[in-house]
Specification:
heterodimer; A: mainly beta; seven-stranded mixed sheet; four-stranded antiparallel sheet; B: four-stranded antiparallel sheet; 0% helix
């Protein structure tokens, strides 16, 4: 199984600041066939179901604000949220969909000061 | 517009079988490449993938639940199903179904399931 190590566990920032969330996979998520990294990022607001933010490591889902940026390749990935807004209060998860069993990171709780 | 909605028993007793239904619209599970997955989340904890089923009836399961899972579909009625046998308190969670098209891009609202004697 591919283990996803996500950090930090939680962070608290003020509106307007930038945050980075990291996910490290135990194996490469880069497909040699299509050069895509099979890594997605999700946002889960309190009391809601997860929402897709980023797929293939860096492609923003339609309607997601451009302050959400996914980067990385191979085994190391980052979700950057620039100009954090109060509405970004949520848990964030990475997901590797490179191989079965699909595995999620343990989550990062973003709090707004 | 893609929508998914989960339904289940709410509460059941240890050793019983949990049966969940995902009713969806806006896509067809007979379309090439489409899949539906089940994911669960204990209260206050993280996400755990359980199983996927594809348009061609291919199925993948999380081996951590060994042989307790069965996923199936009814294409004509736009439904997918998940059964978990021999439940115990550790299966208490919110269960989500989601459209899988290389990743989970649309999720249902989730259904809470409590296992208690």
């Amino acid at each position: 199984d591919i283990v996803m190590t996500q950090s930090p566990f939680s962070l608290a920032v003020s509106e307007g600041e930038m945050v980075t969330i990291n996910c490290k996979s135990s194996q490469s998520l880069l497909s040699s066939g299509n050069q895509k990294n099979y890594l997605a990022w999700y946002q889960q607001k309190p009391g809601q179901s997860p929402k897709l933010l980023i797929y293939y490591a860096s492609t923003r889902q339609s309607g997601v604000p451009d302050r959400f940026i996914g980067s990385g390749s191979g085994t190391d990935f980052t979700l950057t949220i620039s100009d954090v807004q109060a509405e970004d209060l949520a848990d964030y998860y990475c997901l590797q969909h490179y191989s079965s069993p699909l595995t999620f990171g343990s989550g990062t709780k973003l709090e707004i000061k | 517009q893609v929508t998914l909605k989960e339904s289940g028993p709410g509460i059941l007793q240890p050793s019983q079988t949990l049966s969940l239904t995902c009713t969806f619209s806006g896509f067809s599970l007979s379309t090439y490449g489409m899949g539906v997955g089940w994911i669960r989340q204990p209260s206050g904890k993280g996400l755990e993938w359980l199983a996927n089923i594809w348009w061609d009836d291919d199925k993948y399961y999380n081996p951590s639940l060994k042989n307790r899972l069965t996923i199936s579909k009814d294409t004509s009625n736009n439904q997918a199903f998940l059964k978990i046998t021999n439940v115990d308190t550790a299966d208490t969670a919110t269960y989500y179904c989601a459209l899988y098209n290389n990743y989970f891009d649309y999720w249902g609202q989730g259904v809470m399931v409590t296992v208690s004697s």
